[in-house]
Amino acid sequence: MSWINEAALPNSLVGSLHFSPIVGNIVYIIDGGLSTTHFYKYDIATDSFTTLTNPNNSTLNCTAHLSLSPDGLKLATLTDRQGSASNNSAHRVEIYTIATDTWVASALAPSFGGEAARINSVVWEDDDILWVWGGEVSGTQTIKCLKYVISTDTWTQFTTAHTIGYNWRTAAINAAKTIVYGGRGDQYIKYTIATDSYAVTTLTGFTFRDVYDRDKLWYTRNTNGRQGYVDTADDSSNVDKFVENTDRDLISDFGVSDDGGYIIARALTATPWMMSTGGISTSAPSVTTQAATDIAATTATGNGNVTSLGSPLATQYGHFWASHPDPTLDDNKTEKGVPSATGAFTSSLTGLTLNTKYWMRAYATNSVTTSAGALVSFTTSGGVPSVTTDPVTDVATTTALGNGSIDDSGGSSVTQHGVAWDTASDPDINDSVTQDGATDVIGDFFSLITGLLGNTLYHVRAYATNSSGTGYGADVTFTTNTAGTPIVTTENTTDENSSSATGNGTIVDAGGSSVTQHGHCWTTSINPDTTDSKTTNGTASTGAFTSTITGLLPGTLYYTRAYATNTQGTSYGNNDSFTTPSDSIQEQTGYIWMEEDNLRGFNANETENRYVHRTDVDDTPVYLATKDPISSHWAYDHVDAPDPHVGYVLESLFDAQTVLHATTDDTPVALTVTEQTLVGRQTGGNIAAVPIGISDNDIVEVDHASVADNDYAKFTASGLEGRAYSEVLTDLSGQAGAAFSWNSKNLTDTGTITAATSVWHHEHDLFATSLNPGASGAT
Fold it and tell me: Coiled-coil region(s) at which residues (predicted)?
């Protein structure tokens, strides 16, 4: 390794050259004078300069070094000299974004010791926080380590200051980010952030230089100019890292590569002003391939690692793949652009075919060549659906709403989907599940989870099944509520008629304890509760239920709510309203309902009417007509003529043994008359039926005060007929006389007819005999 001259500067040197770290073959250089500044990007491999935008405060003097952010995307320098032009100090940090070639200046550094802090070096803690060495010269030349946050443009100074002097030209920080280092002359200082304390070490025979290396403080040996560094990992001094420059011993500030293999520096004695330890040799980038992840039916994630950016730097990287074992860049590939740094990366592989084997490589390209990692294979899934589990909502005590989405059907029809849940992680279809059936919808869905325990942590996963198997979303957790009142909904009322209806409801959640009562309550005002009319359906579990609502008035608006009660109280569903039908015309299939003052009925057609009297006490419903009690018996009018009918025959509402009459208080009575029964009404009494205890054709003496009267009667085919005394004699002489011997007794004498079935009872004024002429046994 030997020192060689680099290309001449595009412009005359106006101040002091400050170098960024060398990244690949690129180094950034700032030439900061008292009134003029030049800012360049220099390609060591091609010896070419690119002139870049100067900092905002470049005419006010740019000083000490260029520091590079950890992500390699930004630079920081120090600008804006104030006060004496000879002190070569700055009062602002400026941040340069490499991608956009733009600068942003900070607020002024804070004041201490009687003046604004003069800042001389800076180190990046991370991509947003800088630690800056600042001092003052108007007092005792004290220093402080200041903190600056880029995103908020805020400075923080801490209590303690050190009186050793202000101009610390280089800065570094240890890997733990707990100690900030600074170097000047033959001394380096350590600031411990947690204790706000300083410690100084002298390194005799060496001079610290304006060089940025995040974890090292670089210096030169005073005798021969060779470079070395203090390592912040252990405070060790590492001397003579590069060969001596025997051409020109006086080497000032410089920049080094991250691996410490190359150096570029400013020479002090002659032009060209830059020298290095040889041109940066060209090299290919290097990359490794890792196994594919997130493999689905049509997608996968490729994984890789850029281990070297190469020289010149890589300009493109990604993955290429194919369904044969020798993929190239001419097959499928991702292009992720210019890699900003080495490290791991991923690519989204899309457009894959299900159940197919693929071969893949990571790659990185620079102007020299394309490098590829090892060949990796993977096989897409056999069409199992891709599913996402979304957060659970509407969490109650025993229920919750599971949410998910089917993102990919897997290439075949989804035959079942829903959510699976359990108290253990990663539930599957062998645990508790909802089954929402087949679907061809790609997108969101939800499922009602029931039967949960109160105050319990559950795991849930959305799932979908097709002919290849079941796919699951990620595991999501939720905790049910503590015990409470039931959750109830009221559905639309059905089967409304003039006096009744059917209430419908659902117990969605039992509230963590058993439902002891449920039903519907109703009234003519909104928000009915259990103090109003209600059904009591008893205990219940979750699910739909119905209630029979009765005692309603026709043509009336009602409100009803489902309710459920447990040990915690009673809950109600929403209000549902309905109006009962009026008592006027009601249509029935094949009939038209009619009403008049004293008559109700159905008109079946023009020639047949069916009637029921309004005051009939029989309350059997007829064709849903229950407004007033009506009879299940009918009277039929069969006259084939338009109303009003003439000469119609009205069939009795009752049979031939029934007499319809009213009591003295007008109560209707159906009186059954058996054989041999008299029906009559005593003065002031009700109609009654009295059995008389005689058989057909018997003669009975009713009254014999006058023989001219019909003093006798008998039952004939025409009913009960009165019989005169002469008629009785005729009957006896014409019928009974032929069959019986009267023993020379006349009808007025006391005696006994010698016949087994004929007896004369003179003492009772009653004679009874059978009028059957064929009777035997007469003597």
Answer: none
pLDDT band, very low/low/confident/very high, at 683 (cuts 50, 70, 90): low
What is the tens place of the pLDDT at every residue in 298-307? 899 999 999 9
Residue 395: give its domain's CATH number. Answer: 2.60.40.10
The answer to the question of residue 78 being in a domain is yes
Tens of pLDDT, residues 141-192: 889 999 999 999 999 999 999 988 777 889 999 999 999 999 999 999 999 9
More confident residue, 55 or 372: 372
Rounded distance between C-alpha atoms, residue 218 and residue 438, angstroms: 70
Rounded to 5°, angle at Cα 537 from 531 and 542: 110
Q: What percent of the chain is helix, strand and coil (3-state, nearest 5)?
A: 0, 45, 50
What's the rounded Cα separation, in Å, for the pair 315 and 365? 6
Q: What is the pTM of this model?
A: 0.42
Nearest of 63, 56, 68 to residue 118 by alpha carbon:
63
Q: Which domain holds residue 553?
A: 487-579
**DSSP one-letter code for 59:** G
CA 772 to chain centre: 99
Residues facing 363 on adjacent strands = 318, 372
SS3 for 640?
coil
* 291/360 Cα distance (integer angstroms): 9
Cα gap 451→224, rounded to integer Å: 84
User: In this structure, are residues 506 and 515 in contact, taking their beta carbons and an 8 Å threshold?
Assistant: no
The residues, ordered by sequence, that sit 6+ positions from 649 with a Cβ below 8 Å of its Cβ are 637, 638, 639
Residue 578 has pLDDT above 70, yes or no: yes
Q: Tell whether the model's pLDDT for residue 705 goes beyond 60.
A: no
Report the alpha-carbon distance of residue 136 to residue 150 in Å, rounded: 23
pLDDT, tens digit, 9 for 90 and up, residues 346-355: 999 999 988 8
Same domain, yes or no, for 614 and 541? no
Which is more confident, 59 or 669?
669
722 shares its domain with 675: no
In a domain, 23, yes or no: yes
- Please write the tens of the pLDDT for every residue from 743-768: 343 444 343 333 333 333 333 333 44
Same domain, 77 and 99: yes
Any idea what DSSP says for residue 181?
Answer: E
User: What pLDDT band is residue 99 in, cutting at 50, 70 and 90?
Assistant: very high
Counting DSSP H helices and E strands in the chain, the numbers are 1, 64
Provide the b/e sequence for 467-476 (b: ≥16 CB within 10 Å).
ebebbbbeeb
777 in any annotated domain: no
SS3 763: helix
Task: In whole angstroms, give the CA distance from residue 518 to residue 564.
Answer: 4
**Total domains present in the chain:** 7
Of 218, 242, 276, the residue at which a domain comes to its end is 276
The reported pLDDT for the residue numbered 696 is: 64
Same domain, 256 and 146: yes
Whether residue 685 has pLDDT greater than 80:
no
According to the model, what pLDDT value does residue 761 have?
35
Q: Is 779 part of any domain?
A: no
Q: Are residues 374 and 391 in the same domain?
A: no
Whether the CB-CB separation of 339 and 72 falls below 8 Å is answered with no
pLDDT of residue 267: 77
- Indicate whether 649 and 664 sit together in one domain: no
Q: Which CATH number is 215's domain given?
A: 2.120.10.80
707, exposed or middle or buried, with CB in 10 Å at 0-12, 13-18, 19+? exposed
Dihedral pair phi/psi, residue 255, rounded to 5°: -130, 150
- Both 76 and 153 in one domain: the answer is yes
Residues 165 and 70 both lie in one domain: yes
